[in-house]
Every structure is written in C-alpha cells, then in structure tokens.
Amino acid sequence: MKITLGERLFYVCNYVFLLLIAFLAAFPFWNILVVSLNEGRDAMRGSIYFWPRKFSLEAYAAIFNESSLMHATYISIARTVLGTLLGLISTAILAYLLANRELIFRRAFLFFFIFTMYFSGGLIPEFMLFKNLHLYNNFLVYIIPGAISVWNVMVMRQFFEDLPPSLAESARIDGASELKTLRSIILPMSTPVLATIALMIGVAQWTTWFDTFMFTSGSKELATLQGVLVNILMETQIQSTDPAQAARLEQSGSILTPEIIKMATITITTIPIVMVYPFLQKYFVGGLTVGAVKG
After folding, report:
1. Is position 133 within any domain?
2. pLDDT tens across 200-258, in order?
3. In the prediction, which pLDDT does 239 show?
4. Owning domain of residue 129
C-alpha cells in the first residue's frame, strides 16, 4: 500500500515530537551526571549542559572514601527488599478485602482509610508512637511503618474490582478459601498492578532518608546509604560556609563544592532505580484478564 505525502508528513512530525519528549525527559538526568563529573569551582560558573567543562571525579572519590558507605548500602538494600515484599503482601491482602463488596462495614473501612490520607497526628505523636512500640533505634522502623500506603491500597483495590467477579465466584464454588482465591486466581491476573506498586514501594524505600535521622539517633549500624550521602552533603555545605574550613580546603587544592556533591549523590541514588525500571516496564500493560472468565 502506497503511503501518501500527508501520511509521511504525519510520521515525520510524530517522530520529531516523540524525540523532543524523550529529550526533555532525559536531559535533566544527563545534566545532573555531567555537573557531577565537573570540577566543583568551575561548576559554580554555570553554563554546563551536555558535557563537563573540566572533568573531575573528586566528588565521587569523596563519597566512596566514606568508611561507612558499604554497610549503609547493605542496610538500604535490605530495607528496600524487605520493605517492598512486606508492603506488597500487606497491600494485596488489604486491597482484596476492601474490594469484596460483601465485606461488613466496607464503607466505614473505606472512609477510615481515606481519612488518613488527608489528616495525620503529626511528627511528634508519630515519634512517641514509634518509641512506645520499641521501634526507635530498631531496623524494623524502616519496614513496618511503610508497609501500608493508603494510596497504593486504593490503586490495587480498584484493579481488583475491575476483574471479572466470576473468577472469584468460580473459585469459591470449587471450595477455595479467600486466601487461596487471592493467591491462585487474583494475584496471577494482577501482574501489572503488582509490578507498579512494587516499583512505587521500592523507590520510596530506596530514596527516603528522613527516618534515618529521626528514628535511629545517628546510629552507624542503622545508617542508610541515603542518610550517609545527606551527611556528606551537609558537611560539605558547612565547610563551604566556614571561612577557616574553606581556606584549608583551598590550600589543599580541594575542588569540592556542595553543588557537585549534591549532583553526585543524586546520580548514585538514581542509577539503581534506572537499572530496575526496564525489567518492570513490560508488566505495565492491561488486558490480562481477556478470555479468563470461566465458561
């Protein structure tokens, strides 16, 4: 079939438009990497866009010379893996219960969960609660509080509600329990939403650092990678504002600045997520329930 001039023009415009969107999405990440690879004092001049003006690895050297970095990386990986698994299991069970229209007081439960999305007790009551639950200075403070996110529950609940009801009904007729129905029927049909929620939980667990400062009292045994990187950034900022420290760094020939340290920390924390995302992207599709209704 011959392609008309109008169709060719449409394809060209479409490709140009998509390339423009891809460039706008990728350029900020590329620019962060480029600035982190530039000499600190030279980066303060600005106008660094596509490649370093004065190449330097001192920002990464300063970060990787931190003695506690490896242990902190292990803690971050452990909290991300365990937190994602527990969060996914808890979210799936709760979402399945709320998706069941026969659940007693279902509307009351929904109102209770949605209410918590808009109102909270605040940081001080949260701190007191964690301390009374013996989660303060405990590794579980990274895992248990983040096990349930109401937003994730509502997203997964809506997906479960969109599945054909006859799937669960046929399983119950065959004598399956609710847990077996969820495990053997619902979850295998819900790969897209499971992958999406797992990615959201994993990113949240990997990138957060505030709980390290609030609930571990600076313990090196519980320090996460993000907490160590934030400490390095804060120390660099303090040194840059202290005249004595700045003069000492100048004499030693150091070219570190808070800007390149910040860019380097962003790069280090972003790369693992960028590497994981392509493996989950293929699951972000729908239509897996087509033809699955028992006939």
Report:
1. yes
2. 898 889 888 888 888 887 677 888 888 888 887 777 766 666 565 555 555 544 567 77
3. 64
4. 76-206
Domain assignment present for residue 66? The answer is no
**SS3 per-residue string spanning the chain:** CCCCHHHHHHHHHHHHHHHHHHHHHHHHHHHHHHHHCECHHHHCCCCCCCCCCCECCHHHHHHHCCCCHHHHHHHHHHHHHHHHHHHHHHHHHHHHHHHCCCCCCHHHHHHHHHHHHHCCCCHHHHHHHHHHCCCCCCHHHHCCCCCCCHHHHHHHHHHHHHCCHHHHHHHHHCCCCHHHHHHHHHHHHCHHHHHHHHHHHHHHHHHCCHHHHHHCCCCCCCCCHHHHHHHHHHHHHHHHHCHHHHHHHHHHCCCCCHHHHHHHHHHHHHHHHHHHHHHHHCCCCCCCCCCCCCC
Residue 195 lies in a domain: yes
Reported as a single tens digit per residue, the pLDDT across 109-148 is: 888 888 888 887 788 888 888 889 888 888 999 999 888 8
pLDDT tens digits, residue range 26-79?
Answer: 888 888 888 888 887 777 777 788 888 888 888 888 888 877 888 888 988 999
**0.70 exceeded by pTM:** yes
Residue 22 in domain: no
CATH code where residue 201 lies? 1.10.3720.10
Number of domains in the chain: 1
